[in-house]
Every structure is written in C-alpha cells, then in structure tokens.
Amino acid sequence: MWNFDIAGITMNQIQVFLSVAATENMSQSAEELHMSKSSLSKCIHQMESNLCLVLFIRSRQRLKLTPAGMELKKGLQDVTAMVEQAVMRAHSCQYSMKKTIVIGIPLYTTMIEAIRPFLEKRKEAFPDFSWRVEYYTFEELPEKLLSKAVDLILTAHFFEESLEQKGLSYTWLCETPLTASMLKTNPLAQRPKIYVEDLKSQRFITPSPRVLPDFMDYVINTLGTEHGFRPDIALYVSSTEALELNIQHDNEIFISDKYMKMSRSKEIQMVPITDTRSGVLLSWNDSVREEIDWMLYRT
Asked: Is the pTM of this model over 0.70?
C-alpha cells in the first residue's frame, strides 16, 4: 500500500477504510489486508480523529457506515482510482513505454484475437503503445521467448507443462472447448455440439507425435483414456497446416479449437465437443511485466 498524506490522512488509511466499508467486518478486512485486527481498528480510529468524523456505527455483529461514512466512501473510491491512473501514467512517462511489443503466435492460428481486446484497451490508455505479430511453430515459441526475440507468446493449452518445465511465467488467457473438424457431409457436422463418445466411430488425423508430442499426450490420448476408447488414427501429418488438407472421408476428423485457421471452411465444419477444455496460454518475459499486469488486471 502507498503511504503519503492527503488532507491529514494517508493512502494506507484510505485503503483500510474502503475495505472495512465494503466488508462491514473488521476480522474479514484484517485478513484481506494482512493486518492484525487491532492495527486495523487503530487505523480507523485515527482516521476518524483526524477528520473529526464518526464513520461507523459499531455493534457486536458488524460495523455499519454512518451517513458521513457513506459520503466519504463514495468520494474516496473516486480518489483512489484517480491516484492509480496518475501513478500508471507517471510510470509510462518515466520508463518510456513507447516500445513496440513483439508477440509470437503459432502458425495457422487466429490466437491474436484472444489478446486483441487487451491490446486495444492498452492503446486507448497509452496512445504511443504499439505491437507487432510474428508467426512461429509451437515448438519454436518458447525458445523465441527465452532468447527475447519476442516479448510475449500465445500458445495452446497442451503446452502448459512445457512452459512450467522451462520456468516461464504464464497464465490462461481464455478457455474454450475442443472442436472436431470434419467434412460437412459427415453426419456429426449437422449437430450444434457433439460428445467425446461420438468420436469413437471416427478416424483421427493428427500431428505426428514426433512433431507435437504434447498434443498427442494431452489431447488425443487423454480424450481416449478418460472416455474408455483408443482413438483410431487414420493419418499422422507433419504440421498443423496439413490437418484440414487431409480430410477426405466422411468418418475422418481432426481435433483443434476455435482458434484454428481454416482455408477449407466451405467444405469443413468445426463442431464444439461438450465437456472438454482448450484455450490460449499467455507467456511473457520480465521486460513487459508491467504491460501484462495492466492489460490483465486493470481492464
């Protein structure tokens, strides 16, 4: 917490007051703020003394704001928001956040759309902020991040363990179900959604385990193991781009999610698979930590 005076009270006291005003419970606020209950109570009393105001009606069960306390709460919420914005803009000036952030995303995906709203919010707040996008294979992305060829990467959920093993910071940017893509003549293509059990009769076209071992382990094999069947592999391909190009029969599918880029969209239907989990992971290096925190937690 910040700790400087405004009209005889500190930012620390303001944050304590706003927390107690929200919870109406000293013990809960003390726990949330990592303070002792006695220190928190002393802080509130000192603030009331400094302002010559009674802010709370005290009872055994809870605290209740007085009319003066309610009015102060309303005003101080605006003040803290203004202070946070001012500090953020000051940091922007001091550290010259005019650099272009380089974002690495997987080939043949539209994952940039998952982060675009955050980037545009950042651009709105800081007009000098800019970014550019580079495409790499899934395997290349972590190495590009480690070598600082890019500032952040977007990758698939099945690379989560790989990011952990490399010691990279990451978070789930968004979640979405897995999808099965198939010819529009496949009977499953007529449904708005399908179930994993529906895949038992299908033949899978999938990236080779030598190309994307994590995909085979954490997507294809996991689907089969959790639902009691062994996926029938029709063909292994050498790249994700080749998946849709090799769908030729009505009982063939490949597994991806909505961020897979499709060139045969007139012929191929993508259907969500119920009760499955996919998504986009965001990983970054320390040089853009401030921008990441701002985009994820202040928008």
From this structure: no
